[in-house]
Fold these 2 entries.
Entry 1:
Amino acid sequence: MAAVRNLLFIMCDQLRHDYLSCGGHPTLKTPHIDALAARGVLFRNAFCTSAVCGPSRMSFYTGRYARTHGSTWNGVPLPVDELTLGDHLRPLGLRVALAGKTHFVPDIQGMARLGLDPRSPETLLLRTGGFEPFDAYEGHVRPPDDAPYMRYLKTRYPGGDPWTGFVVGAEAPDGTTADGWLIRNAHLPARVAEADSETAYMTDRAIAFIREQADKPWCLHLSYIKPHWPCIAPRPYHDMYTRDHVMPAVKSERERLDPHPVYKAFIDMEVGQSFAREDVREAVIPAYMGLTRQIDDHLGRVLAWLETSGRIKDTMIVFASDHGDYLGDHWMCEKELFHEPSIRVPLIIVDPDPAADVTRGTVRSELVEAIDLVPTFLDAYASKVPRHRLEGRSLMPFLRGPAPTAWRDAVLSELDYAFYEAREFTNRGANDARAFMLRTERWKYVFYKGFPPQLFDLAEDPSELVDLGRTPGHEKVRQEMHGRLLERLTDRRNRITMDDEWVLGARDREMAGGIVIGRW
Amino acid sequence: MAAVRNLLFIMCDQLRHDYLSCGGHPTLKTPHIDALAARGVLFRNAFCTSAVCGPSRMSFYTGRYARTHGSTWNGVPLPVDELTLGDHLRPLGLRVALAGKTHFVPDIQGMARLGLDPRSPETLLLRTGGFEPFDAYEGHVRPPDDAPYMRYLKTRYPGGDPWTGFVVGAEAPDGTTADGWLIRNAHLPARVAEADSETAYMTDRAIAFIREQADKPWCLHLSYIKPHWPCIAPRPYHDMYTRDHVMPAVKSERERLDPHPVYKAFIDMEVGQSFAREDVREAVIPAYMGLTRQIDDHLGRVLAWLETSGRIKDTMIVFASDHGDYLGDHWMCEKELFHEPSIRVPLIIVDPDPAADVTRGTVRSELVEAIDLVPTFLDAYASKVPRHRLEGRSLMPFLRGPAPTAWRDAVLSELDYAFYEAREFTNRGANDARAFMLRTERWKYVFYKGFPPQLFDLAEDPSELVDLGRTPGHEKVRQEMHGRLLERLTDRRNRITMDDEWVLGARDREMAGGIVIGRW
């Protein structure tokens, strides 16, 4: 074992924290991810800053909350002056590259105002979220013809559009191609061969990158787009799991009686209506499990290569997901809102340094957040953490001990639901569809602009089936949580252009500049 | 009269709202500013977003609160992706220029990261806050040798440093030069001739600009650095007012009994200690009044030129100050904290359009904020107000009627006191020295991170002498104000890269992109 030299930052898309065997799933087996947990530290109370791909990932990459970095939903460009992982790690001598998805959208307008040409080589990193695009692939929609994966597919499936026809095309029993987006087809196999599927291909590319780097230091973001929609798995993963492996939905009829207006708007959307049906869950969840198992199998290949190449000795490995998935719990599907299946994420960190031997295989229950990763990485490289910008805290003390005696007592997550039908259902404007959640060990409080709050007692009601947001008996708790949320929001790091040391030296500089105020 | 074609945006530095005769001052006469009020609308409840030059001005220029734009104190660079007045108005065909001060500091680090050369002509506007520097002059400290005003001074006062020797140099009775920074010298005349003083020079430059523009449209920010420190006036203004013209300090011994810890830290600073003394007030305030009267006289020259040139018919005139000055009230001097003398600012708007004839000479009592000016200007030019960025509201309805039936019921102001000795007195870190004020018509509530709040009942105690922040009887009011402050803070416009129309069209675009979530 050696000090941290490389960083393998693995992310899944929409993987629930409890859909791993080490996360407690009773029927899904994920031996390779379990092996990571055994080798490192599993954070069982890890949370995303927003249960939507784009804002959550921008928080993972910037170390800042969603409202702070401003990319509050998918497709909202990250302002050009936000720093990402690449900005933080490249100066340390690492090659910082991407294999897979970021959901980053460049701030073309901001670049144009600054006179920056968004097509020039000089602005490449501003277009790619700071990652060298070793193999960028956003998935979800048909990739452009010149995307590497698309070019690869065309060599394997000549003629036509292989992505639509094979990757998200399902093989119907009559031999025709069925639409993999439609959930009634989730039980069918994808027409793509497993070895050509998104997960297999991106794993190949990750291994190619690591091989290419040899002993030169690197950070690779291996970012799978699965098990996110479209929920369609290649053989043999499409029917590896059946309805017998599906856990019952966590929901109660009581939740639909006098529901919170925003919650009601979400369960009224089409996806919520679909997942209220048991047959939908039984069609989709086995495919979701198969896709997760497939990722686990391919991670086994990556780990084997790290062993073979010796890189296991100097590579920090992080495994996470951008958010979870309701999968029918609470009459919801997708994510967005603040119940645990949505905002809690798997998080495992393996630190190769011998100093971390004392914590291998441990499980931490502290409340950690996606924004903690950037400071953790900087700390792993013994680099200064710019606290005027970064809103998270380094997790290194949990890896090398001793664990901190004082830690945050609440996590913050937020939602900009202006982009949903739910905004129309609730009659909000473009800037009013906002929700902020503060969750302590015991309480989960959700503030909705213009609506009453939600409140859940996680001690008495760990399944979050009873909303105490409007019950007379909990006014005091709500007020306390409201006050704490305000305190939290005032803690935003918006003074990004001046570091703390400079701030603390302000008075001396002013005096040195000749300014004398109020002296007789 | 014609429609708005030009914009003359006049700003004073540290001018209290009530140090104008139209603002109610009993002994100070400001006939030309009064004439503006008679010709336009006086907003008697106008507030700055932070009672410190830099953050306040950045709010005037960006239309955004201090914590939002991030330049929370003097010298903190405005992030390079913030848009200022120039960005908003230049596309409308105006020449947007500056005569005087902005307190803008360019984001050199941000520029460097983006590969922008901070010395190139292409980045000029990024270095000047978006204003063409017709005659930039920051004052307060000795200007660089190549500053236009310094060059002018050198022609008038050859040899040595004319700024230190004449502009802030006072003429002692024995003929020697006394230091104009020291308040014991405030009653002495500056050694500079009145016609060469900062206020006179900058007025000349403003008239030169307006003359040069002839009938081409423009926005000129005429930004005086007076009556800000150093408090030293040229003849005849240095002794135009005497101690007999000084209003008694608004303060009470009760304020110093068990004071709020942050308030105590400020009154314990040297400037507060000085202004607790009556002799200090009586030395400084007459000079402050003289400097104000001087500005008024020179504004008379500007107005005369607008009449002569005909520009009065198509020029909107705005008169404001960046913040006030305690001048010994509440045992304080300077500004920073949230009492009315500090956060309330003079604001007059003259709209040349005949549609505004119905409101001329009226006084409005609505709560308006510095961030309202950018939307007002855009509205005056019938240009779209980008509501995803701008946090204020257009004041045009108050100018042309009918006045809005619904208006904001509270103003927000904030302070980042990390830069003061008061931070050390209160043992705060660089990111913890934060205060936020919410003021309604009746209540003023100040939230201090890590401390109890302050609360003033403006109906019962308009002089703000009784802090109700910790009295048992006002818990309900404090909680209500606390809740409203949270609501206000969640209203920040941090999603700056996507306009509202685009947000509202998000669902259609997603569907068009082929993404189908949750359909059977």
Entry 2:
Amino acid sequence: MSLGVAVIGYGYWGPNMVRNFYENDDVEVRWVCDLNPERLQKLARRYPSVQLCTDFATVLADPKVDAVCIATPSDTHFELARQTLLSGRHALVEKPICDDSAKAQELIDLAARLGRVLMVDHTFLYNPAVRCIRDLVESGRLGRLLYFDSTRVNLGLFQRDVNVLWDLAVHDLAMMDYLMPGQKPVAVSATGIAHVPGQPENIAYLTCFFKDTLVAHIHANWLAPVKLRRTLLCGEKEMVVYDDLEPSERVKVYDKGITVRDESELQKLLISYRSGDCWSPKIGPGEALQVEVRHFVECIATGAVPLSDGHAGLRVVKLIEAATLSLQRRGEPVEIA
Amino acid sequence: MSLGVAVIGYGYWGPNMVRNFYENDDVEVRWVCDLNPERLQKLARRYPSVQLCTDFATVLADPKVDAVCIATPSDTHFELARQTLLSGRHALVEKPICDDSAKAQELIDLAARLGRVLMVDHTFLYNPAVRCIRDLVESGRLGRLLYFDSTRVNLGLFQRDVNVLWDLAVHDLAMMDYLMPGQKPVAVSATGIAHVPGQPENIAYLTCFFKDTLVAHIHANWLAPVKLRRTLLCGEKEMVVYDDLEPSERVKVYDKGITVRDESELQKLLISYRSGDCWSPKIGPGEALQVEVRHFVECIATGAVPLSDGHAGLRVVKLIEAATLSLQRRGEPVEIA
Amino acid sequence: MSLGVAVIGYGYWGPNMVRNFYENDDVEVRWVCDLNPERLQKLARRYPSVQLCTDFATVLADPKVDAVCIATPSDTHFELARQTLLSGRHALVEKPICDDSAKAQELIDLAARLGRVLMVDHTFLYNPAVRCIRDLVESGRLGRLLYFDSTRVNLGLFQRDVNVLWDLAVHDLAMMDYLMPGQKPVAVSATGIAHVPGQPENIAYLTCFFKDTLVAHIHANWLAPVKLRRTLLCGEKEMVVYDDLEPSERVKVYDKGITVRDESELQKLLISYRSGDCWSPKIGPGEALQVEVRHFVECIATGAVPLSDGHAGLRVVKLIEAATLSLQRRGEPVEIA
Amino acid sequence: MSLGVAVIGYGYWGPNMVRNFYENDDVEVRWVCDLNPERLQKLARRYPSVQLCTDFATVLADPKVDAVCIATPSDTHFELARQTLLSGRHALVEKPICDDSAKAQELIDLAARLGRVLMVDHTFLYNPAVRCIRDLVESGRLGRLLYFDSTRVNLGLFQRDVNVLWDLAVHDLAMMDYLMPGQKPVAVSATGIAHVPGQPENIAYLTCFFKDTLVAHIHANWLAPVKLRRTLLCGEKEMVVYDDLEPSERVKVYDKGITVRDESELQKLLISYRSGDCWSPKIGPGEALQVEVRHFVECIATGAVPLSDGHAGLRVVKLIEAATLSLQRRGEPVEIA
């Protein structure tokens, strides 16, 4: 039996969602909806079996639609997801889950009450390289985590309504949340700048503080001449570098670090350095979105809780909200509730 | 006529200074002084003509010593430089000029009063790649500057007495000061962490705010599995990436950016994107230290003001002091006097 | 009016051809034909409007088929292309045009006699980076050409019937033919080895000699741990490096070289070296196959001669035939007729 | 007791030899000899304890000279080495051992007869990365060797008297000889070109054939815009890539390859592909020349046979001689005696 799916929004990301739902054997893509009819025309040629419309009501009126994938601008996520859930459908929402933590909580409550799946498209959680790193963390091989550092910069589309944290850092925060399970940020400090007067910040630097001697930093930038996608996750025993643009060795594990010995009788600490081999695990192929769509379908079928559920979406939104406040105050730290 | 030089400190950096002074035809290296006689033994074999000693007084007692190069730990810079100047000698001090801005000012005043050259070893100012970038800035080719972003990370020696800003970020701040002439930071925000309890911070992130929509960020880190030395200097017209580890094209100039048009009648801004050619200027050979030593010798001979004079040293120290304070307050912004 | 197209073969390359014909607005993909019905099933889901069949006769029986794209193993190219042309259709044949130069000549003659377009899928001729290099050559900027050197290695599928030259070097030879217009190879020498007993050579090194002091070399290898796609085209004035795997600067133009002066009175040559800037032209986006399909459609509409016509295909096959002979004789040079 | 050493030739390579002998505690550098007195002046300043001269006889007249290091142009190696040995001294000769295999044999015989150490400066045999690869080969980890492929290109000094094989490929041949112990080339084929009329070839491609399904290829080039130093050594089980310019992971070991199964009942071969992890062993620091000098001193002290003895030098010269002949015949294979 096939799951009836509608995709809302056919701009930048929608085509990827449509393609991946389309190629999933357990799914029937029934509708694609976009306010702009021109965009839909491209689609018609490619997927003649899919129905097209420009208003959301048409989608909801189809009783064969079981789930809705929302790939519209983030300020519309809340209302579309709310209506989706209220109509009894499951929802997969593009990141960020929505533009406000209170509304995110409302969606979580609604989904729980109605027994529907609410999942957020934190794509990197379904990326084989990121999963490989999570396995490394869980195996204990890295040892106690020391820091997370992520750079995501390129010459990218300046968004009008949200700053670069909402657009780019959301990926890194979702990864951080996934790769450091159980670690809760207690405060953030963020700095940045808007180079176009009256527009949101196009460069931002964000630090997350944790209870322990753990720190996370993210550099998000729409105005860089080169594209960089590099994440460091360093533990006491081993250190990981994940370069998403590297064609062959995307994940490298370094047997490097320091060892601290407390020489009590000497009244001092001795620090020694380790610099050993580097190892690059084979990363299986597989498109993250394909894995993600399969996971969404399974959660609907089995009632399982998605890896990137509403709570994961909410945790990320809370951090961005706090960071945006700190940004306005030139780095002043903001506590996370 | 030859300039009599003494080098104080023969640890990590001292050998480089000795070699470069030694190879300068206008210099006679008369003394190398280090508290540790073992270090000096290595030297004896290599430079049999140089006299060795373990106390500074011996150096000062030699009337043929015209200038002193101080390559000792930074907390000793002030006292050694002070005595050097008071004894009527010229001083070249390893970076940072000293560990306190008030003392730096005292050295500046002393040098001015006694008419002696006080120069700080901001090595990158004498690096041909950095000079090439400065020329690009001055030519107007980059347009109005938008941001400076510098990453300097590797698995490096943890220092006991100073945090990583004093050790690594000092290079980036000196470069920033040189590459953005006339731009004065008004405040800084810094975050970071000390992974070894009771020790100074080994990771730090520093943001400098300026009057205008200009921002600078530095990432300094002693605990990274990979070595990165990358600086971005982006202007409205062109953007520069300087990768000090790149064997061939160390400086790349990108014809990339955005163009903002104010469409008054439309009540909105139009942003368009440019992505053109990339150009990598030929960087001449030449060791920075060799150029620096030559400059020091010339300033002594001609009375010219060094490019990296005491004021440059002081500006950098003030920023690090403010950043260290901000670091302790988890990013709270600190004004620059 | 739409061009009716059939694609024969839906293995490795066929899906790319189908997709690009499908997305061309002037084309109607009427048939995809493959001996293997399983392969066709995948297609059915994706392109529900396309008709499927397992025998070529069905395709030829459809009067609305105007052109046939042949993407089958190379030993079937000749017969399929022959029938295509004889039935009055235009043919686009995957590289190599066929497995024998006499047969390639027969196809050329047939197409000429029947007034049909015969085009070979030398994909790189339609690649924007390669076109950019051709423009550089034609502008005279590189000066007199000195050598072409191309490396195409990775861990690739060992083919059963043909050696690695027929599979990989064909790309480099087609590029060479295109980038050095008017230069005719006079002889080739090739070496290599078959690591699997009884199978064709999986590593080959090929040198083309020209009349002048021009040389070309190609390294083709199915058994390499890393993927390399690098081509050098060096002229007296400037030198080009084309790295097809480089994400950003795929083409680099180096102002490097030597200058030779004949010092007659000194009875010797003076060689001086130039090492100037490097420049990387912006390469437009655009998939090569899309450009190629458009060119095929245009040639049919206008009667223009395709860039990669049967003669281009024949020139490449002749070189591979000669190289295969040389390979068997451990590098003995073989003249090109 | 200190070994008295003289270095002959203070051009490109001589200064490296002098420095490394100078820094060896068991050596006293007594003389440096060069026909050009200007070169020696630079030296005087740097190593005031070393005696300088412009004729070789002066060196030989000093009874405290135990060993001579010959770093002059290769056409002078034979005569200088011969006189060195005849005078009872040990000889370390820069690569190639000399310019003719018969003369190399004469030096070998002379050294044997007089009981003196004759060593050739095949520097890469003392490079820690190359030694690491040799250990991998000997451990059996790579499995049966399949091929060696080495690229050594850059914009380098055109030599007047010898082609690029004598200058660059000698390194790769020495490495090949060392990394594939017991494997004897039976024939070579070489191609190339001289871009400057009347001068030796500045680009050369060399293939070595072995008895088995093993092949080696070397690309040596003085006229390339980029510097490449990459060697592949591929075995049935694992494959090594050695990139001498890579700052961090110079040696990478790939768990990649093919597995061939003979399916007799199916009358065919099944080839399956392996693509596993990549591993980069930590390469210790240490300058190759320092290790080499120490080895030379030890061989003299203990009578041990140098790793790069006269026979190693001769094997390399024989290959270059055969390759040069093949080069003149456009790739025609030449047997190795």
